[in-house]
Amino acid sequence: MSKTQQAPGGVRSKGLADYLNDENVRAVIYQIIAIGLVILAGWYLVSNTLDNLERQNISTGFGFLDLEASFGISESMIDYTPKSTYATALLVGLLNTVKVAFLGIVLCTIIGTIFGIARLSSNWIVRKLAAIYVETFRNIPVLLQLFFWYAIIPGAFPAARNALEPIPDVLMTNRGIYIPVPVADNAYEFMGIAAILALIIIYFVKKWADKRLDATGQPFPIVWASVGIFAGLVLVAYLAGGAPTAMDIPELKGFNIRGGYNISPEFLAVLIGLTVYTSTYVAEVVRSGIEAVPSGQWEAADSLGLKRSVSLRKIILPQSMRVAIPPLTNQYLNLTKNSSLAVAVGYPDLVSVSNTTMNQTGQAIEAISIYMAVYLGLSLITSLFMNWFNNKMALVER
C-alpha cells in the first residue's frame, strides 16, 4: 500500500496514484504516447525507405525537376516543348487539372441547380425527367462515365477532311472542336489588368452601396453598375491597346486542322463526365436546401402577389443556400479529386504527367508526393473559399 503523504498543516498532498486517476492528466499522457508512436512509425518508414533506395542505387531529391523532360504533351495552356524541364511539364499538368476542375465546378453548379429545382416542379413530366437524370447518372461510377463519353465523342464527328462547320470558322472533327481565337497582342494583357482593376473597384462600390442601404434605405443598382464598370474599363483598355482584330482561324491543311484553338475529345470527355456525375449530387443538395426552407416563406411571398419564379429567385434560393453550401463544398472537393481519373482517357492532367515523369526518372516517391501535395492544396483552397462564402451567407444576429 502506498503511503499517504501529509503536507504541513495536516493537508493531504496528491500522490502519483491521484494524478494517474485524474482524467485530464490521463488524457494528456495518452496524447503524448499517441504522438510518440506516430513519430516513431514515421521515422521507421522514412529511414527504411531511404535505406532501400540507397541499397538499390536510386537517387532521391527533387533535382530532376531541372532536367529536360524529353516528352510531348498533347495540350498545354503555356508554352511547352519536349526540351522544357520536368518542372514545366508538371506545371502544364497542374494547369490542365485546374482548368477542368474549375469549369466542371461552374457547370455542375448551374446544371445541378436547374435539375434540383426541376425535381420540385409541379409539372409531372419535368419532375420525373429530372428524377430519371439524377438517379441514372448518380448510380453509374464516374470512371465508366468517362469511358462512355470518350467512346461517344470521337465517333460523333467525321474525320478532319470532312469536318463539320455548324458555325462559320468553327470546325468539328473526331480530333476535337476547333474554334478561332485572337492572335496574341499586348492589348489583351491590358484588358486582363483592367478586368482585375474593375473587380477591385466593384468590391468597394458594393461595400459603399451596402452602407448606403443601411443608412438611407435606398437601394443602389449594383448589378448594372458592376456591368458598366467592368465592361467600360475592359473596353477602354482594348481601345488603348490598338483595338486588335486579327484572329487565328482554323483551316484544313493536309490531313489535319491547323490554327485556332482545339478542344480535344479527351478534355470534353473528362469535363462532361465529371460535370454530369457531380451535377446529380448538386441537384439533390439544392433540392434538400429548398425543402429545408419553411413553407411559410412561400405563403408569405404568395400573399404579396409575387410570381413563383420571383419568389424562388429572391426569397427561397438565398435562404436555401445557407443550408446547401457545406454539402456543396464536399461535391466540389469530390469533383476536383475525381479529375485524377482523367488519366484513364488520355487527358494530360497532373497525374498523367507525373506518371510519365516517374517512369522516366525513377523518382516515384517524389512524383507521387508532388501530386499528393497539389491535390491537398487544391482541396484546402476550395475549402477556405467555400468556408468564407458560407460565413458571408450566414445570418448575422443583431
TrEMBL record:
One of its GO terms (molecular function) is transmembrane transporter activity. One of its GO terms (biological process) is amino acid transport. One of its GO terms (cellular component) is ATP-binding cassette (ABC) transporter complex. Keywords: Amino-acid transport, Cell membrane, Membrane, Transmembrane, Transmembrane helix, Transport. It is a multi-pass membrane protein. It is found in: Cell inner membrane; Cell membrane. Signal peptide: none annotated. Its main location: membrane. Residues 94-386 form the ABC transmembrane type-1 domain. Pfam families: BPD_transp_1 (PF00528). PANTHER family: AMINO-ACID ABC TRANSPORTER PERMEASE PROTEIN YHDX-RELATED (PTHR30614:SF37), MEMBRANE COMPONENT OF AMINO ACID ABC TRANSPORTER (PTHR30614). Belongs to the binding-protein-dependent transport system permease family. HisMQ subfamily. NCBIfam families: HEQRo_perm_3TM. This is Amino acid ABC transporter permease. It comes from Thalassospira profundimaris.
